[in-house]
Amino acid sequence: MMASDDAPLLIAEGLTKWYGRQPGCRDVSFSLHAGEVIAVVGESGSGKSTLLQLLSAQIEASSGRVLYRMRDGATRDLASLGEAERRLLARTDWGYVHQDATLGLRMAVSAGANVGERLMAVGERHYGRIRGAALGWLDRVEIDRGRVDDSPRTYSGGMRQRLQIARNLVTAPRLIFMDEPTGGLDVSVQARLLDLLRGLVADLELSVVVVTHDLAVARMLSHRMIVMKGGQVVETGLTDQVLDDPCEAYTQLLVASILPP
Question: What is the pTM of this model?
């Protein structure tokens, strides 16, 4: 299916995932445009992480589908892609930022190698260019370039998360999936990371789907919000509108219990 430049980048249609008789998510539909950030929020067990795994083709849907607009303008059903095509998307057009940075990094190699490895995966072989790109991205995510040859094991939690971001962005992806990107970090580290993420998303005009239980993170990063409960979407809308004037009782409770007055 061909798409115009203003067509959505990502479309979810009726996404449903069952784990036996337990629903992971049910009948979720929405679209994401280029340069747009959508936050998926809800309590633990609401289905938001399952939804993110479905969107990023890590797990197969029980029903429904995910469509993605490729760089050639064609919109493809992810289920129709071969395994090699999905891996190529994950290495080039997509990034995935894990809550636990050790899942998104290779801890046995240096910081520079973590960034450079993704470039090598898309065909770069010139050591000088790879090294230069790694140093440039360490600068961009506010890591001292003198740490380029250090192992991520020697990095703090916040530094590891910033290194994971650099590793993801070095190939100029169009779409980033984020799973609780500030979870587990100290408040001061969270604030610094959020400020960095907001700047990078705006500068690079990235499309982002971010899963978070923290409504302050959603407010700072996202344009639109999807609220989930029990695997289903209970409310959607512009982020400020949903947070400042929630319509559904569950969203009202969520906002009242998490956001300060």
Answer: 0.93
